[in-house]
Amino acid sequence: MPWRYRPRPETITVDPAIRQRVSDLARHDRVRAVRLLREETGLPLDFSVLLVDSWLGRTAP
Questions:
Q1: pLDDT for 3-51, tens place per residue?
Q2: How far apart are the first and last CA of the chain?
Q3: What pTM did the predictor assign?
Q4: Pick from 5, 9, 1: which is nearest to 49 by CA?
Q5: Exposed end of the chain (fewer CB within 10 Å): N or C?
């Protein structure tokens, strides 16, 4: 789904337990962390990447 505007990570709420598991995994394997987030929440790939990167403190291009 193409975005008409850049989504803001702070506008979505993820269960704290899922966020913790994804964040812990992302420190070692970002790709698997994005996959886990998608499986747990059903979020689109682009948004999952954006969320994981924001949780890691990375800035998007």
A1: 566 667 777 788 999 999 999 999 999 999 999 999 999 998 988 999 9
A2: 19
A3: 0.79
A4: 9
A5: C
